[in-house]
Amino acid sequence: MSLGKNNSITFGGNILDKEKAGKYTGHSKGRESSGKGSSNKYFYPIYGILLLVTIFITYIILQNTEEPIRTIRRFAGTFGYLTVFLAIVTSEYMAKMKKISGLPFMTAHHNLARIGLLLILIHPLTFILQGRGIGIFSPISPTNVFIGLAGRPAFYLFFLAAGIALYRKKYKNWRKVHYLSYLAFLLVTLHALMLGDDFELAIMRILAIAMAITVIVIFIHKRSASGRKRK
């Protein structure tokens, strides 16, 4: 997750500076026909599955509605998790995202990232509305180890990755800090598996594990591609 110019936010480590934007436009077809082309063939099946997953998650939440604030918390947590995942996945399919959304890749990508961050913020705020106090934002929890070791640190890692990217021109190795967003996603997965109301179902637990594995694969792919470019 990172911030582009004009405070644009992006997950997945793809920042297109002005000088690179032209190169991307002029060579997107070439890239798609090479390494990117081989990965783009998986775009439609993946997003077809994700659409079904979104509908299924919505159904689960609506079947178990409780008090409004708790329902909002579940919605924000679950869909914030899913939206961050989508933002990470889209970084692997630039050309297809532009084609299917009708928007420049970075615009569509930024919109997903903004929504994800907003939902991530709303999730803990609902506890404050229930009288828990601002202590909910403490990275250390004396009452629940997995809140302290997973959910809360992940919250700060996401925003740290975004903040450092905002000042990326000042920090040569900002991208290394940006990769903390992948770690944050894995921590959120632990948080969801241990505490998420909607992740008590076996199918949701399998889904969370599959998403975590996918993010790990994307991270490895990006690191290996970065290594090849340096050579």
UniProtKB/TrEMBL annotation:
Ranges where the Ferric oxidoreductase domain occurs: 83-188
InterPro entries referenced in this protein's UniProt entry, alphabetically: Fe3_Rdtase_TM_dom (IPR013130)
Pfam families: Ferric_reduct (PF01794)
Taxonomic source organism: Methanosarcina thermophila (strain ATCC 43570 / DSM 1825 / OCM 12 / VKM B-1830 / TM-1)
Presence of the UniProt keyword Ribosomal protein in the record: no
Superkingdom classification of source: Archaea
Main location, first listed in the record: membrane
Name this polypeptide is given: Ferric oxidoreductase domain-containing protein
Keywords, ordered alphabetically: Membrane, Transmembrane, Transmembrane helix
Segments passing through the bilayer: 42-62, 74-95, 115-140, 146-167, 179-196, 202-221
Membrane-topology annotation of the record: Multi-pass membrane protein
GO cellular component assignments: membrane
Lineage: Archaea, Methanobacteriati, Methanobacteriota, Stenosarchaea group, Methanomicrobia
Location of this chain's protein in the cell: Membrane
